[in-house]
Input
Amino acid sequence: MPRIDSSDHSENAAAEQVLGAWELRPESLEYMDHGLINRTWRVRGENGASYALQRLSPILGPEIHEDIEAVTAHIAARGMATPRLVGASGGGLCVKRKDGVWRLLTWLDGEFHNRLDNTGQAEQAGALLARFHMALVDFDRPFASRRRPIHEPDRRIAELEQALAAHSGHPLHAEAERLQHRTLELLAQLPPMPGTPPRVVHGDPKINNMLFSPEGEGLAMVDLDSLGRLSLPYELGDAFRSWCNPIGEDSEETEFSVELFEAARSGYLDVATFITEEERSSLVDATLWITLELTTRFTADILNDRYFGWDPERFASRAGHNLVRARGQLRLAESLLSVRPSLS
Output
């Protein structure tokens, strides 16, 4: 019998069973407490190889695997490390069952971080994301997955207005309204974003979607379910607002780190020779736009009572958790605005 490490026996039993679709008998299964969307296990096979087994969130469709296969083949051909899908014995890139969609990927050894601790890590993160973008500059295949663009600030603003109208009796309605007013005040101070052409991007470049060597070198981008085409400044704005908030999204006491930003931006620009001047010059404002977009999204989630990453041990409700997240993003934007003149 394989050694199984996890508190959920039924989930692990399903994981062990589904490996039969790859004709793989595991020596051990280890549940990896990493990421909010998919469920992940490290599988050590009898052949000595390791794999990542994942059960996908219901929000993702199986067609995403066509995109992952095409993108990872493209960047691997350009010498970049990347996890690759392992085809099932039936020939598919994933396995569909009553309990969800499962997939198997090659395992890459390395380390994950939940936050940046120093400027060296920030520089490596910037360089890794730049190499990923560089490898995909000439990727021209259409994407099979037809998801909405990840970042649409105007849509998020409209969704917050709808949530305020639909939940007028919510106990946090007045606080959500205050957050909305302040967010709109700050957005009014920003110039419109330039219409830069869409590029192939990761879509969710949080620091814990990046793999590093023990020496701190950036190795690979992982969790590629958000692949798509997007304005490059929005992709980098999302990265910087995440990387340069050392405290994280679950605190109100946030402050934008100029030191981490400058190191990350330098690491990126030193590698990304393809970037245009229009893209480069809009990175600070894009970071502000995305931070405030996230503020509106988290504020709407307060009223809609929606957050799949709710931590019930720290927060009494999803609404309370989202209130902290919204306040934290707003404070992060205010912090960035205060130092914006020095970051041109």
Q: What stands out?
A: The mean pLDDT is 91. Residues 283-304 form the longest helix (22 residues). The chain is about 40% helix and 15% strand.
